[in-house]
Protein backbone atom coordinates (compact mmCIF):
# COMPACT_ATOMS: atom_id res chain seq x y z
CA UNK A 1 0.00 0.00 0.00
CA UNK A 2 2.61 2.51 1.06
CA UNK A 3 4.99 1.22 -1.63
CA UNK A 4 2.27 1.73 -4.26
CA UNK A 5 1.75 5.29 -3.11
CA UNK A 6 5.46 6.00 -3.37
CA UNK A 7 5.52 4.55 -6.90
CA UNK A 8 2.54 6.67 -7.94
CA UNK A 9 4.02 9.87 -6.63
CA UNK A 10 7.30 9.01 -8.40
CA UNK A 11 5.34 8.53 -11.64
CA UNK A 12 3.62 11.85 -11.15
CA UNK A 13 6.95 13.58 -10.51
CA UNK A 14 8.36 12.12 -13.73
CA UNK A 15 5.23 13.11 -15.66
CA UNK A 16 5.26 16.66 -14.34
CA UNK A 17 8.88 16.94 -15.56
CA UNK A 18 8.03 15.52 -18.97
CA UNK A 19 5.03 17.69 -19.84
CA UNK A 20 6.82 21.05 -19.95
CA UNK A 21 9.56 19.55 -22.12
CA UNK A 22 6.96 18.11 -24.49
CA UNK A 23 5.17 21.47 -24.61
CA UNK A 24 8.36 23.30 -25.51
CA UNK A 25 9.17 20.68 -28.13
CA UNK A 26 5.73 21.11 -29.66
CA UNK A 27 6.09 24.91 -29.70
CA UNK A 28 9.45 24.69 -31.44
CA UNK A 29 7.90 22.34 -34.00
CA UNK A 30 4.97 24.72 -34.64
CA UNK A 31 7.33 27.70 -35.07
CA UNK A 32 9.54 25.70 -37.45
CA UNK A 33 6.51 24.68 -39.56
CA UNK A 34 5.24 28.31 -39.66
CA UNK A 35 8.66 29.58 -40.76
CA UNK A 36 8.88 26.89 -43.43
CA UNK A 37 5.40 27.66 -44.80
CA UNK A 38 5.94 31.45 -44.87
CA UNK A 39 9.29 30.94 -46.61
CA UNK A 40 7.59 29.43 -49.63
CA UNK A 41 4.93 32.15 -49.79
CA UNK A 42 7.28 35.11 -49.36
CA UNK A 43 6.38 38.17 -51.44
CA UNK A 44 8.88 40.51 -53.07
CA UNK A 45 12.49 39.52 -52.42
CA UNK A 46 15.10 42.20 -51.84
CA UNK A 47 18.06 41.87 -54.16
CA UNK A 48 15.75 41.10 -57.08
CA UNK A 49 13.91 43.88 -58.92
CA UNK A 50 10.90 43.08 -61.08
CA UNK A 51 10.11 45.37 -64.03
CA UNK A 52 6.40 45.68 -64.74
CA UNK A 53 4.15 47.55 -67.16
CA UNK A 54 0.47 47.34 -66.24
CA UNK A 55 -0.31 43.71 -65.47
CA UNK A 56 2.66 42.42 -67.47
CA UNK A 57 6.04 41.48 -66.03
CA UNK A 58 8.70 42.52 -68.54
CA UNK A 59 11.74 41.13 -66.76
CA UNK A 60 13.80 41.23 -63.61
CA UNK A 61 17.37 41.72 -62.45
CA UNK A 62 19.41 40.77 -59.40
CA UNK A 63 22.42 42.21 -57.58
CA UNK A 64 24.57 39.64 -59.43
CA UNK A 65 23.20 40.80 -62.82
CA UNK A 66 24.03 44.44 -62.00
CA UNK A 67 27.56 43.57 -60.89
CA UNK A 68 28.22 42.32 -64.46
CA UNK A 69 27.31 45.74 -65.96
CA UNK A 70 29.76 48.70 -66.08
CA UNK A 71 30.26 49.93 -62.50
CA UNK A 72 30.22 53.61 -61.55
CA UNK A 73 31.26 55.12 -58.20
CA UNK A 74 29.17 58.11 -57.12
CA UNK A 75 29.93 60.38 -54.17
CA UNK A 76 26.67 61.93 -52.94
CA UNK A 77 25.74 64.04 -49.93
CA UNK A 78 22.05 63.37 -49.31
CA UNK A 79 19.99 66.06 -47.57
CA UNK A 80 18.06 63.47 -45.60
CA UNK A 81 16.09 66.01 -43.54
CA UNK A 82 14.13 68.32 -45.79
CA UNK A 83 12.55 70.60 -43.23
CA UNK A 84 14.73 73.47 -44.43
CA UNK A 85 13.75 73.94 -48.03
CA UNK A 86 15.86 71.30 -49.73
CA UNK A 87 12.91 70.02 -51.74
CA UNK A 88 12.95 73.10 -53.98
CA UNK A 89 15.42 71.27 -56.22
CA UNK A 90 17.51 74.36 -56.90
CA UNK A 91 20.67 72.28 -56.57
CA UNK A 92 21.95 74.99 -54.28
CA UNK A 93 22.52 72.76 -51.28
CA UNK A 94 26.29 72.67 -51.25
CA UNK A 95 27.92 73.54 -47.97
CA UNK A 96 24.75 72.59 -46.16
CA UNK A 97 26.20 69.43 -44.66
CA UNK A 98 25.95 68.46 -41.00
CA UNK A 99 23.25 66.78 -38.96
CA UNK A 100 20.71 66.75 -41.76
CA UNK A 101 22.85 65.15 -44.42
CA UNK A 102 24.48 61.79 -44.99
CA UNK A 103 27.55 61.10 -47.09
CA UNK A 104 27.68 58.16 -49.44
CA UNK A 105 30.02 56.64 -51.96
CA UNK A 106 27.70 54.43 -53.95
CA UNK A 107 28.65 51.78 -56.48
CA UNK A 108 26.11 50.99 -59.16
CA UNK A 109 25.19 51.18 -62.79
CA UNK A 110 23.00 53.57 -64.84
CA UNK A 111 19.31 52.61 -64.79
CA UNK A 112 19.19 53.41 -68.52
CA UNK A 113 21.63 50.58 -69.31
CA UNK A 114 19.60 48.16 -67.17
CA UNK A 115 16.36 49.05 -69.01
CA UNK A 116 18.06 48.83 -72.40
CA UNK A 117 19.45 45.39 -71.54
CA UNK A 118 15.86 44.19 -71.06
CA UNK A 119 14.34 45.97 -74.09
CA UNK A 120 15.87 49.02 -75.84
CA UNK A 121 12.35 50.21 -76.74
CA UNK A 122 11.22 50.66 -73.12
CA UNK A 123 12.44 54.23 -72.71
CA UNK A 124 10.51 55.32 -75.82
CA UNK A 125 7.29 53.50 -74.91
CA UNK A 126 7.02 54.79 -71.33
CA UNK A 127 6.99 58.23 -69.71
CA UNK A 128 7.42 57.51 -66.00
CA UNK A 129 8.78 54.87 -63.64
CA UNK A 130 7.31 54.14 -60.21
CA UNK A 131 10.04 52.81 -57.94
CA UNK A 132 8.93 50.65 -55.00
CA UNK A 133 10.74 49.41 -51.90
CA UNK A 134 10.03 46.26 -49.89
CA UNK A 135 8.28 48.57 -47.37
CA UNK A 136 5.93 49.77 -50.20
CA UNK A 137 7.64 53.14 -50.17
CA UNK A 138 7.31 54.47 -53.72
CA UNK A 139 8.45 57.41 -55.77
CA UNK A 140 8.19 58.68 -59.36
CA UNK A 141 10.99 59.12 -61.90
CA UNK A 142 10.37 60.92 -65.17
CA UNK A 143 11.77 58.99 -68.15
CA UNK A 144 13.48 62.25 -69.21
CA UNK A 145 15.49 62.06 -65.96
CA UNK A 146 16.45 58.45 -66.63
CA UNK A 147 17.65 59.45 -70.13
CA UNK A 148 19.89 62.23 -68.75
CA UNK A 149 23.54 61.22 -68.57
CA UNK A 150 24.99 60.73 -65.06
CA UNK A 151 21.70 61.07 -63.20
CA UNK A 152 19.73 57.94 -62.25
CA UNK A 153 21.60 54.86 -61.03
CA UNK A 154 20.71 51.56 -59.42
CA UNK A 155 23.30 51.00 -56.70
CA UNK A 156 24.29 47.88 -54.76
CA UNK A 157 27.11 49.08 -52.50
CA UNK A 158 27.95 52.07 -50.30
CA UNK A 159 31.53 52.77 -49.19
CA UNK A 160 32.52 49.46 -50.75
CA UNK A 161 30.04 47.45 -48.68
CA UNK A 162 26.99 45.63 -50.08
CA UNK A 163 23.76 47.44 -49.25
CA UNK A 164 21.85 45.87 -46.37
CA UNK A 165 18.30 44.61 -46.65
CA UNK A 166 15.61 46.20 -44.48
CA UNK A 167 16.06 43.31 -42.06
CA UNK A 168 19.82 43.87 -41.90
CA UNK A 169 20.91 41.07 -44.24
CA UNK A 170 23.28 41.45 -47.16
CA UNK A 171 22.33 42.23 -50.77
CA UNK A 172 19.87 45.02 -51.42
CA UNK A 173 19.39 47.53 -54.23
CA UNK A 174 18.64 51.24 -54.19
CA UNK A 175 17.82 54.05 -56.62
CA UNK A 176 19.87 57.24 -56.57
CA UNK A 177 19.05 60.46 -58.46
CA UNK A 178 22.22 62.56 -58.62
CA UNK A 179 20.37 65.71 -59.75
CA UNK A 180 17.99 65.53 -56.78
CA UNK A 181 19.94 65.12 -53.55
CA UNK A 182 16.90 65.84 -51.35
CA UNK A 183 16.99 62.07 -50.76
CA UNK A 184 13.27 61.31 -50.92
CA UNK A 185 13.56 59.60 -54.29
CA UNK A 186 16.52 57.45 -53.25
CA UNK A 187 14.21 54.43 -52.96
CA UNK A 188 15.94 51.89 -50.75
CA UNK A 189 15.26 48.12 -50.55
CA UNK A 190 14.10 48.30 -54.18
CA UNK A 191 11.84 45.44 -55.33
CA UNK A 192 10.02 46.79 -58.40
CA UNK A 193 10.04 49.31 -61.20
CA UNK A 194 6.66 49.97 -62.75
CA UNK A 195 6.76 51.57 -66.19
CA UNK A 196 3.95 53.96 -67.05
N1 LIG B 1 12.25 52.11 -49.19
C1 LIG B 1 12.44 53.34 -48.65
N2 LIG B 1 13.31 54.18 -49.21
C2 LIG B 1 13.52 55.42 -48.71
C3 LIG B 1 12.79 55.88 -47.59
C4 LIG B 1 11.86 54.96 -47.01
O1 LIG B 1 11.18 55.25 -46.00
N3 LIG B 1 11.72 53.71 -47.56
N4 LIG B 1 12.98 57.17 -47.12
C5 LIG B 1 13.54 58.13 -48.07
C6 LIG B 1 13.93 59.40 -47.48
S1 LIG B 1 12.68 60.46 -47.04
C7 LIG B 1 15.25 59.76 -47.35
S2 LIG B 1 15.71 61.31 -46.81
C8 LIG B 1 16.33 58.81 -47.66
C9 LIG B 1 17.23 58.64 -46.48
O2 LIG B 1 18.35 57.98 -46.87
P1 LIG B 1 19.54 57.67 -45.86
O3 LIG B 1 18.91 57.06 -44.63
O4 LIG B 1 20.38 56.69 -46.60
O5 LIG B 1 20.21 58.96 -45.61
O6 LIG B 1 15.85 57.53 -48.05
C10 LIG B 1 14.72 57.56 -48.86
N5 LIG B 1 14.39 56.22 -49.32
MO1 LIG C 1 13.72 62.25 -46.10
Automatic annotation (TrEMBL):
Organism: Pelotomaculum schinkii
InterPro entries assigned: OxRdtase_Mopterin-bd_dom, OxRdtase_Mopterin-bd_sf
Entry annotated with the keyword Membrane: yes
Residue ranges annotated for the Oxidoreductase molybdopterin-binding domain, each copy included: 56-195
Domain of life per record: Bacteria
Keywords: Membrane, Transmembrane, Transmembrane helix
Pfam family, one: Oxidored_molyb
Classification lineage: Bacteria, Bacillati, Bacillota, Clostridia, Eubacteriales
Transmembrane segments: 20-38
Protein name: Oxidoreductase molybdopterin binding domain protein
